[in-house]
Model the fold of this input.
Amino acid sequence: MNKFPRSLLILSYLILILASVLVLYPVLRVVATSIRPFDRIMTYGLSLIPDDADLSNYVRLIRDTDFLLWLANSLGVTAVTSWLSVSIAAMSAYGLTRRNFRGRNAVLISIFLTQLIPGSVLIVPTYLMILRLELVNSFIGIIFAYSVSGITFSIWLIRGYFRGIPVEAEEAAMMDGAGPLRIFAQVLLPQAMPILAVVFIMSMLGGWSEFILARFILIEASMFTWPLGLNRFTGQYRTLWGIYSAAAVLVSIPAAAVFYAMGGHLQEGLARGSGGGLGKASR
Done:
């Protein structure tokens, strides 16, 4: 196996270091802004941590706003949305992979075509659907909107992973008298944990920071998720940058924790889940 030239290797490391600095510096600036005193938010130097740094912005955020309520609302909505998305997508992908039925190819083509539609185009019809179902200003409405928005891609991704799992274990369980539901839950799902983790993280990240649909569906302030709540810190003449930055730091912790906990499954799940094409649709 040929080795990379030393000069090319050094250049690659330099590019990676530069890219890391460009990505991390804005994040560090947000953290620095969150710990700056209120009268020293805007600075023109490159120093990140001032000499008189404190946690006053975090104290004001938690004490003087409904941030904890917004955070709890987002956690509940995101958890239920992610669980529903994974459950529905996994069961749908199982039926489309292991069951032959009339019109299966048409369903697969329809799922594929929905992925060609930009998500922004679907905002209005999704809201109208929620409005017709009288689910506006309810957590059920926002959970339903988030669950259906990305489920077709999740089905496609999980189906590609299912197609790479050998059927011998399922056939052995069937000979032992196991039914389709037991085979799905006890044989197939344990082997599909990497791709299920990918779908869970994708659903979580999509719903965790979503603003536009929440802005239309959630009306009462007591039901706001954190993106709607943080929007209150910005105004035409004044923006509370210190509190805004403190909230941005805190809301990143749950997403980073979930991403770190499930990160071991991401690489395998994405690699094996990318094979869900229309070819071999009869498998």
